[in-house]
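[step 3/7] inverse_fold.run input=structure_tokens len=194
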């Protein structure tokens, strides 16, 4: 009978389940992110969270307890050197489970599990203050532009000038432009001959 057996056995015997969760915990600590099924991620969360809490204080006793679960010197070193100091101010909730859809072969629900303080994909940039836009594109009060009045007076003043002054203002062809004009004239002369 199944009286008060509250955790998921994941279809494995005890030794197999412990070894699998230990390996997954080592991978999560070393790589900071793993992809697995949702059921395994939820089971792994109950293994990793107490270890991360232990890593906040670096004592021999805490290291021995972590090693008894992880069975990897490298993972224990990474846990106490990198993960522990980074999560020192966090009270709990060190892992995040992000569902990624179903697996093609057996339609198992898949997820990505990561350590919260080590994500570099999202959540690192500060939130931008969003400005609200009005549905109406214009404002109700007209905008008076004083520069436009000055610009409108300028053509009237130019019209009052003599034609000689206007002729003096015409641009003179530079030396760079004249050879190009000669080349086009020469090519048009050759076309006329043909």
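[step 3/7] decode complete -> sequence:
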């Amino acid at each position: 009978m199944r009286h008060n057996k509250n955790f998921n056995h994941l279809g494995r015997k005890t030794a197999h389940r412990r070894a699998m969760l230990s390996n997954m915990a080592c991978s999560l600590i070393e790589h900071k992110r793993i992809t697995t099924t949702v059921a395994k991620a939820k089971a792994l969360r109950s293994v990793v969270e107490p270890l991360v809490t232990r890593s906040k204080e670096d004592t021999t006793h805490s290291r021995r307890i972590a090693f008894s679960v992880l069975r990897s010197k490298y993972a224990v070193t990474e846990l106490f050197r990198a993960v522990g100091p980074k999560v020192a101010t966090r009270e709990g909730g060190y892992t995040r489970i992000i569902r990624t859809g179903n697996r093609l072969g057996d339609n198992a629900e898949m997820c990505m599990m990561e350590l919260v303080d080590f994500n570099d994909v999202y959540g690192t940039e500060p939130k931008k203050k969003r400005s609200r836009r009005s549905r109406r594109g214009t404002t109700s009060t007209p905008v008076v532009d004083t520069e436009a009045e000055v610009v409108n007076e300028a053509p009237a003043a130019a019209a009052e000038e003599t034609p000689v002054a206007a002729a003096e203002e015409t641009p003179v062809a530079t030396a760079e432009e004249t050879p190009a004009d000669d080349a086009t004239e020469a090519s048009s002369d050759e076309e006329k001959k043909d």
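[step 4/7] annotate
The beta strands are 33-37, 95-102, 109-115.
The first helix runs from residue 14 to 31.
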